[in-house]
Amino acid sequence: MSQDTEKKVAAEAAALLVExxxxxxxxxxxxxxxxxxxxxxxxxxxxCVATSVQTEEAAxxxxxxxxxxxxxxxxxxxxxxxxxxAPDFWLVKGGGAAHTRExxxxxxxxxxxxxxxxxxxxxxxxxxxxxxxxQFGLQSTLxxxxxxxxxxxPPSPDGNVIADYSGAIGGPDALEAWLSSVPGVVAxxxxxxxxxxxxxxxxxxxxxxxxxxF
Length: 214
Ligand code: 5RP
Fold this sequence. Notes:
This protein has a seven-stranded mixed beta sheet. It has six helices and 14 strands. It has helices at 3-15, 32-40, 53-61, 99-108, 138-145, 172-181, and strands at residues 23-26, 47-50, 65-66, 75-80, 84-85, 91-92, 109-117, 129-133, 148-150, 161-165, 185-188, 190-191, 198-203, 206-210. Strand 2 (47-50), helix 3 (53-61) and strand 3 (65-66) form a beta-alpha-beta unit. By secondary structure, it is of the alpha/beta class. It is 28% helix and 28% strand. The protein is globular. The chain starts with a helix and ends with a strand. The structure holds ribulose-5-phosphate (5RP). Ribulose-5-phosphate (5RP) is lined by residues 27-31, 80-83, 93-99, 102.
């Protein structure tokens, strides 16, 4: 079964979780590209926050109301893709360089739902881990991080540099704490399991819901 079919199946299942009156966070990427029309087709009265300019434009073109994220303090639901999903629900995100805004929107939501094709389920996380770095002091930040490659993409919408950490992962807890401690790192693409309410994965033509054991 093609990855696109699995992405669509997962996205359409997630769209059914959106209810009238909700405030909804919209992620970024090719899986979310299937989510937006599926939500719009339901003709619900909802207000959205977008994690990227691409998503904002696509959502508006479909008739969805997108609000300024600076003015929204809470969302009912956020739905987004992922690059890697480990069995313990650690995620790697940021393949589309939107991980800083995506993490903020995930944290704004009462429930953060991840949608993915089955290729995103991995036995353990691996490099690269996307980074967003402040331009100020960049050479020093790169020296402190050591195993980092600058990504050949435009700056983030917040004016920062996109890069990828390619060193050892070890335990994601320790790597997360270390990356967060390096001055100049605006955000990294490791998402803690505590953020994730549910993973909806497309397997063939079926959507499967995975929930974390608390
Ligand atoms: C963008 C992301 C995406 O959610 C992630 O890269 C998955 O993308 P896709 O749905 O295209 O496979 O984190 O920054």
